[in-house]
Specification:
The protein is mainly alpha-helical and 71 residues long. The protein has one domain: Winged helix-like DNA-binding domain superfamily/Winged helix DNA-binding domain (Arc Repressor Mutant, subunit A, Orthogonal Bundle). A two-stranded antiparallel sheet has the order 1-2. Helix 1 packs across helix 2. The chain is globular and about 30 Å long.
Length: 71
Amino acid sequence: MSRIFIAIRQVVGGAIASTEEEAMPLVARLLGFSRVTDKMRRHLSAAVGKTIQAGILTFEGLHLKLADDII
């Protein structure tokens, strides 16, 4: 699993409820960046999509959740 997927999983797993937009700056900070550029936002959004396709995350309404936490 890549560092970006691990960071996304950490942010979403540690949040009570987080939209993709809310998670992006937190993921960027975990990866050592102080802000999110448009290019980084596109890259992070694509990575979130891949984590959903891989079954790591899922949506509950507008909020991202760990797939393991869905009952």
